[in-house]
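Allow me, if you will, to draw on your knowledge of protein folds for a short while. The matter concerns a single protein, recorded as an amino acid sequence and a row of backbone structure tokens. Kindly check, if you would, that the fold set down in the tokens agrees with what the sequence suggests. You will find the record immediately after this paragraph.
***
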Amino acid sequence: MAIYVGIDVHKRFCQAALMDDSGAVIRELKFENTLEGAHRLVNIARSIDRHVKAVVEPSANYWIKIYDRLEDEGVEVKLTNPSRTKAIAEAKIKMDKLDARTLAYLLKGDLVAESYVPTRKNRMRRTLIRHRASLMKMRVEVKNRIHTILDKYDLSYECTDLFGKEGLEWLRNLTLPEIDDHILESNLQILEALNEQIRSADIEIAKDAVNEEQAKLLMTMPGVDYYAAMILLSEIGDVKRFASPEKLVSWVGLAPQVHQSGETQWTGRITKKGSKRARWILTQCAHTARQHDPKMKEFYERIERKHGSRKAIIATARKMLSIMHVMLTRNEPYHGENRRLTMQKHKRLERIANTA
């Protein structure tokens, strides 16, 4: 015998339904979305039967602490994929209690469409990388505000990098009307603080990468540095959950859409269903790889001649990802590795990781 618990998660509270082996709902309760709330749910379920199974329907990131607490309590827990759980997604009546009951019923029947749950280590890694990405976005916004102030007075800096050492010195020595002078100084201070926080995040990511053998493996491919490798590992998780390179490519959203009518079939744009960060970093890697990897250069140029640069970059990114799947599953370095380039990347990684 077991107790099957369906949990519909929201920001402040969760709705749970407890079902027995016969399919009867023996208890329904609403509890706070807190660690203590999850602990109380487990105690109630175990007061009925010691063997407890649970399924959680996610809402944003509010499910994480509930999922982790249930796991810590020794509960066999699954995370459902709402878009694939048709019994809920297509229900005409949308109620929290109905969702929780349906989840419990699907769990009892072993019919839950599960979502992949990364390890806690990988979730923390992903959190750090996304934190850095948000800092980068904030820095772009600050730089744009500074450019707006300069445009207001038709001011321009002749050198290439306005935000390099000389450019920043030039900005600090500008004389503007009082209010804009104050705003410029404020933005420069924010920029300095953001630069420091980005450097700090870079160091933490590098420290993680130094001890990650799979990151070093990916770095044997031209165009992939430690940061790109860590983004891909954090987004993909366990590569073995993808049975083939094609499945990984499809998951990232780099596979072309296929349209079929009768006996006619044609392909369209990529699906873009999957990790935006993985797609973005792969296209950045492809731009670099076509310059430093003869194999990728030849492939890119062949596609570019037929379909243009945009499709060529996407195709190159897709090819690189397919090769990465093989590298990670077989634990093999890139066959076209440039050893000198790889050593340069490793030295840079060590230097950043050891920054005081």
About this structure: Strands lie at 3-9, 13-19, 25-32, 52-57, 76-79, 256-261, 264-270.
